[in-house]
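Design job #97: recover the sequence.
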């Protein structure tokens, strides 16, 4: 299982998890849900107290990935499999991305 913090304008909004069966879960933090001034991170992931589950990487996050030759270069330089979308997302969206969302790997012991 791999996890990543989802940051909205550098504030932690929730956690994205890839499970061992390659399915995905996204859950907003309770504090984010309780604050009415905090927006949803995406129209396709509206604020909800329940988890979002998907057999594939959520389209919102998939659309943050580089494509074509940019994807190939990022994967080669970072030693990421071309089909490891979650690994690529955590690598390419951790520092700078288009929009207000960043995705940062949660280190596990």
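Job complete. Output follows.
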């Amino acid at each position: 299982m791999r996890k990543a913090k989802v940051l909205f304008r550098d504030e932690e909004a929730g956690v994205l998890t890839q499970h061992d069966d390659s399915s995905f879960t996204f859950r907003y933090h309770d504090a984010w849900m309780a604050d009415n001034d905090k927006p949803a991170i995406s129209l396709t992931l509206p604020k909800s107290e329940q988890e979002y589950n998907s057999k594939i990487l959520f389209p919102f996050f998939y659309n943050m990935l580089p494509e074509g030759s940019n994807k190939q270069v990022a994967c080669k330089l970072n030693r990421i499999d071309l089909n490891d979308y979650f690994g690529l997302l955590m690598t390419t969206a951790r520092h700078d991305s288009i929009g207000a969302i960043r995705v940062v790997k949660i280190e596990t012991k």
